[in-house]
Structures are given as C-alpha cells and as structure tokens.
Amino acid sequence: MNTYGKSLIQAVSIILDGEHCSDIKEQALCILANIADGDTAKEFLITNEDLLKRLKGYMSNGNVKLQVASVFCISNLIWRDEEGSLERQNRLKELGFKGILKQLLATQEVSLFDRVKTALEQFSQK
Question: pLDDT tens-digit profile of 69-102?
C-alpha cells in the first residue's frame, strides 16, 4: 500500500464511478474489502473521504451484491481485535455507517443480513 496504494485506490474508484455492470463493481468492492483486511491499508482507507462516501453509497443503493461487498469492506475496517479498531469504529460512527448498518438489518436477504449482523457485532465491544 505504501508503494502502490494511491494508484490502486484510484483504479478501483474509476471502476466504482464508471458505467460498469454490478458484477464488475462488486469485484472492485471485494478488492477494497481484501485491502481493508491488511494492517497498513486500514489507515489508508479510513482516511480517504471519497472512498468512504462511495462505500456509504453502495451500502444504501439497493443492489444486494453491492451492499454485501461494501458491508464486508466496512466489517474488515472495524474488526475489533485489531490495533486501532476503536478509532476506526468511532470515525465510521461519526460518518453514519453504524446507522446504515442498523437500517440494513431489516433486509429479507439472508446473505446481507448475516454480513450486517457480523459488522454490527464488531462495533466497540472491548
């Protein structure tokens, strides 16, 4: 991430902002979720305001695949057993992510419900 992070995020952002089908956008979100699982990358992602806005938008857009992938990314960012998780959780709470997750609990889609439940369980239980 230190060497290629900015270019990688820029490439993913182009895909997320473009006129690509939802399957391609889902894969771009999965790339972000995998990046969010890395120690160095968490800080890189949590400080990227534009990227966080995109994730928030995909969590609310109604396409279940995109919602699941974006919630997965948030879950990886806030995983409570990792260093700095409380600070990342607080940042995402301030930006309204926890509220969106709570709203998504009303979904009838099992895969989305399970992913949202897991993410909410990660919010500050230390």
Answer: 999 999 999 998 888 999 999 999 999 999 999 9
| CA-based torsion, 126, 2, 48, 12: positive or negative | negative
Rounded to the nearest 5°, which phi and psi values hold at 90? -60, -40
> How are the residues of the chain apportioned to helix, strand and coil, as percentages rounded to the nearest 5?
75, 0, 25
- Residue 125 pLDDT > 80, yes or no? no
Q: Which residue has the higher pLDDT, 35 or 40?
A: 35
CB 104, CB 116: distance < 8 Å: yes
- Supply the pLDDT for residue 123: 82
Q: What angle do CA 78, 69, 121 make, to 5 degrees?
A: 35
Instruction: Tell which residue, 125, 61, 62, 122, has the closest CA to residue 92.
Output: 122
